[in-house]
């Protein structure tokens, strides 16, 4: 059969010649290869002591940012949830009450905001969709391993950036 | 000291030999037989026949008994699957075994065990050098004939094991 | 006089036994480290500095695991199997000369546990016995895979013992002695004008090649580890073993490697002899001490070679194994014996015409 790509290599099964039948040259070739690897630099990163260097644009665990006065930026518009290809984000919107101006920047805010880290693919589309620059993917944190599935659903308690100390 | 070791080894030999005959599981029989050979090797060492001891150790314990064990493990015999033997064959076996015993006793009754002379007895007689001298100088022809016999047996085994053309693979 | 000899003797015996076990223990660590290095990894490095306490951690782990005996297994033989494997493995190092003689109070004492004039046959016999441990354990497990592993071990050991014996016979023609100590001493003679260089490898290179291949097969190491071939037989003869039964089997394998390395170093690579050993003008005891150190370096290099090969070569197929043993190695070793005998005869008596 004619091969379509013309890249197929025709293999002939030739009887082995004497040195091939002795196997010893091939064995010594293999031994020299493994010996070279023996002295090569090891690829292992000894994890708790060393960590892998991360890229500046690396996408890790999400954070919900606050503005310069410590108010939550998120206005629960839902654009991130719409943009999310894995449908990992859900939220419930609520109206800001009087006296809560120091907590939320806009009149509408997210009462609950949940990201399922088992669904999330860390693509960063939520970050791009956000009109208020509220959600970001940090480049120095990962979602750690846990025992229960529920623990992977991150609510506002674990997503919102902690309050800056001087504003408290 | 040596006498005590001899009695211990003799006891071990007889115990293991009885075990070979008496045990119902054939694998136990083979293991007892290995123990018998082990004790016999000890006897050879007591006789200062080191080469015979080593050969007994390597050839009988190390090779032939391994093959015995090999075959019996493959057969995978069980006490419950073994069919009951008819009474006639039991009687026949007892009679033939008894006759063999009678013949052995009759043959060995008058044998002179051949004492040794303590003055000119050479204690080094069983060592490798002497054995080699005797085998390759005084008994060269029988020794070589024995090797021809082995060669013939080997060729026969190869012929038996060879697959006939058209014979199916049995496994 | 008697008591010093007795003390030195018993010290040597204890040291030989202890060193055998110590080297076997650290072989497990070395195996993992070498495997890791060859695969560009780091290997065990958590227990102690550089992971040096890893063998202890492994031993503790194995001791605390459950000793499981399968329901229909033959309990006595199931336990006897690994014990026998360990016993036979430890027996072999008794006759290996680990050094020349020590001079104490004008008396020469061998650095060797026991000196017998059939030492090489003793080692051969004990190694031949080693297969019983595997066979009994494999059969007593009452498991098809264990049985197949045991049977493979038996047939493989018997097949390669023949070629091994033949290569030893060629060596014996050269050395004309069965005693390992005499063979080692002969290699301390002068060759090429260098004392302590009369190594048998220069006389028997083919014999050494056959011997080392057979040594791999006898110790059930890759590429001849078909008895425990996990792709075909799960775990082979130690499928059903757990805890220290398993540990004894693994340990016996490393002791066997140590013994095989020591035998190869003694028979072919000069034993405790090292180049220029008598030209330096050192005192006798110091030469013996250096010689023992050199022998252990040789042994460790062979152990390294065993592991290096393990992490390089794939496993043989069973028919390839049998073909190599019966159709290649045995004819080669017989040819080696005949050529050696002919050369010795001609060099002693001249050409027959």
UniProtKB/TrEMBL annotation, chain B:
Tell me how this protein sits in the membrane: Multi-pass membrane protein
- Cellular location(s): Cell membrane
- Which E.C. number(s) belong to this protein? 7.1.1.-
Top-rank taxon: Bacteria
* Reaction it catalyzes: a quinone + NADH + 5 H(+)(in) = a quinol + NAD(+) + 4 H(+)(out)
EC supergroup of this enzyme? translocase
Print the keywords alphabetically: Cell membrane, Membrane, NAD, Quinone, Transmembrane, Transmembrane helix
Question: Among its keywords, does the record have Cell membrane?
Answer: yes
**Transmembrane segment boundaries:** 6-23, 30-47, 53-75, 87-108, 139-161
* Tagged with keyword Cytoplasm: no
> Of which family is this protein a member?
Belongs to the complex I subunit 6 family.
Q: What does this protein do?
A: NDH-1 shuttles electrons from NADH, via FMN and iron-sulfur (Fe-S) centers, to quinones in the respiratory chain. Couples the redox reaction to proton translocation (for every two electrons transferred, four hydrogen ions are translocated across the cytoplasmic membrane), and thus conserves the redox energy in a proton gradient.
Record-given protein name? NADH-quinone oxidoreductase subunit J
**Annotated organism of origin:** Rufibacter roseus
What is the taxonomic lineage of the source species? Bacteria, Pseudomonadati, Bacteroidota, Cytophagia, Cytophagales
From TrEMBL, chain C:
Q: Which UniProt keywords apply?
A: Cell membrane, Membrane, NAD, Oxidoreductase, Quinone, Translocase, Transmembrane, Transmembrane helix, Ubiquinone
Q: What name has this protein been given in UniProt?
A: NADH-quinone oxidoreductase subunit H
Named from the GO MF annotations, one term is: NADH dehydrogenase (quinone) (non-electrogenic) activity
List locations, semicolon-separated. Cell membrane; Membrane
Q: Which family does it belong to?
A: Belongs to the complex I subunit 1 family.
Instruction: Write down the EC number.
Output: 7.1.1.-
In terms of Pfam families, this protein maps to: NADHdh
**What InterPro entries does UniProt report for this protein, alphabetically?**
NADH_UbQ_OxRdtase_su1/FPO, NADH_UbQ_OxRdtase_su1_CS
**Which EC class is the enzyme in?**
translocase
Q: Which reaction is this enzyme known to catalyze? A: a quinone + NADH + 5 H(+)(in) = a quinol + NAD(+) + 4 H(+)(out)
UniProt source species: Rufibacter roseus
Q: Give the protein's biological function.
A: NDH-1 shuttles electrons from NADH, via FMN and iron-sulfur (Fe-S) centers, to quinones in the respiratory chain. The immediate electron acceptor for the enzyme in this species is believed to be ubiquinone. Couples the redox reaction to proton translocation (for every two electrons transferred, four hydrogen ions are translocated across the cytoplasmic membrane), and thus conserves the redox energy in a proton gradient. This subunit may bind ubiquinone.
Query: Which segment of the chain is annotated as a signal peptide?
Result: none
The annotated subunit structure for this chain is:
NDH-1 is composed of 14 different subunits. Subunits NuoA, H, J, K, L, M, N constitute the membrane sector of the complex.
The principal localisation class reads membrane
User: Lineage from the top down?
Assistant: Bacteria, Pseudomonadati, Bacteroidota, Cytophagia, Cytophagales
The membrane topology term of the UniProt record is: Multi-pass membrane protein
So where does this one cross the membrane?
6-29, 76-99, 119-141, 162-184, 248-269, 289-308, 328-347
